Amino acid sequence: MMKFAKCKAPLLISVLLSTVLLSGCDGDDGHDGINGIDGTNGVDGTNGTDGSNGVSALVNITELLAGNAQCPFGGQQIETGLDTNNNNVLDVAEVDASQTQVICNVSQRQLSVELVGRYQSDVYGLSAAEIVDYHAASQTAFVVNAQSGKVDLLDLSTLTQTPVMGEAGYTLNNITKLAELDLNADTGLALLGAVNSVSVSGDLLAAAVERADANGNATQGNGIVAFYRLSASSLPQYLSSVDVGALPDNVTFSPDGSVLLVANEGEPNSDYSVDPEGSVAIIDIINNSPANVATLVGFSDFNVGAARASELSVDINITDPVLQSPKI
């Protein structure tokens, strides 16, 4: 046992020495490396120039009234284009015609009529209230009282929107007659007969009056148109009369009031022994006053054998009951 103990001592010492030697051989820790230098930031680029504003597109919508050639019941015309002059208005030169649209109404709006006023002339069986026109400034209706040779002035200022219903309407008489225009007295002309038509444009009134000829034929002479100046606060003032064709039956102003048109019927007498030709009279309105003379446009060029007879449609057949031959 003792030999075994002696033999182990040198081995233990050897192991201890190996351990010391191994520990002594560890190298020193290395130094930390130096941090690198940060790079400088890059220079920012400059901002770009703002672009110019774009051109605006505009739309223009125009209401088309009933009776328009393209839209009989009215409608809308829609125009578009670019506002090149930047005035926020779609000018005519800016309209893109290729983009214009027309939308027509497919039917006429339904008309609703209710009785709110009634005037009784107390003349029965005769033409005592035939043609009517209205002057807005004075709220006056001008009514042809044909057989009397006068024009009645009716006050519409007191009318309301309340309808009169049922049997009450049969006896209604709530419109007051203000005055009358006596065309015979105002013009001072002889042989005047019935007033056939009246028309108002602005503050100007025109009335057509038939006239007898020198042989006593009641309507075969050349008639007249009498003109009156209207006012919001006073009665009409007579201005002048203009000679027109035989039996002026209808008068109307052009929409801009620059011309008065007169349809002259040219009615024959009962036995056709006197048969004046029909015509159209044109009276210029200059500076809101009528010209002194009318221009007459006749139709004799279309008579059989006349210069323009070939232009007359074959669908038109005008026959003289006495001569039994075509005649205009």
TrEMBL record:
PROSITE patterns: PROKAR_LIPOPROTEIN
Domain (Choice-of-anchor I): residue spans on this chain: 122-295
The keyword Acyltransferase is annotated on this UniProt entry: no
One Pfam family matching this protein: choice_anch_I
Signal peptide: 1-23
Domain DUF7151: from-to ranges: 57-104
Keywords, ordered alphabetically: Signal
Protein name stated in the entry: Collagen triple helix repeat (20 copies)
Species in which this protein is naturally found: Shewanella phaeophyticola
